Amino acid sequence: MKKLLLLLVLPFVFISHLKAQDKPGPAEQKLLDSLCNSMNRLDLSKITTPEQANDAFMSCFLNYADLLTDVAEELGLNFTDDAAGEKVGELIGKELMKQKCGAFLKLAAILAKKGDTPVALTTTGTFKRIDNKGFNYIVLTDSNGNEKSFLWLRQFPGSEKFIAPTALTGKKLTITWQEMEVYLPQAKGYYKVKEITAADTQ
Hints:
By secondary structure, this protein is α+β, with helices and mostly antiparallel strands. It has helices at residues 4-9, 26-40, 50-63, 66-74, 82-98, 102-111, and strands at residues 121-133, 135-141, 147-152, 172-184, 189-201. It has two domains: 4-111, no CATH class; 121-201, CATH 2.40.50.
């Protein structure tokens, strides 16, 4: 599966085809600067595969998730709308290319290489709630009452069901997910999270 960085990059790989855009607003430029500075601190010599490139970018991106709402408001978009979220992502990718963020360009080149398809796993449980931690996490409980969290990062088949989550309370769900490693600033370390790729009700 192509991941978020590829989604951001591919429409803009050929810089000569970019159309002139208005200068980014303060919120957007703050996010661009933060992302680029964060990526420039990466040890790119250790990043050689598309999976590593994606994980590295997402670690940087998730650190500044709180700025996305400000960018959406600045652009006059409703960030809770999937289409608006994709538009923000495209704009960020375009501007990082235009501003020639060196680390971003290197990550994009690595990610454009053909890589192995990430392994998709499934978990079935009872829907309990959605936690908002910059991004949404869908929480299920298993048969023993243990909670399991899954990162809702992008639109996926079945994501529309979670727009009104109260209707799902107590229902059985099967979530398809793939593992990715991200940097969590609160914990000051890298941790593996489960990114949702599909969800079905039973």
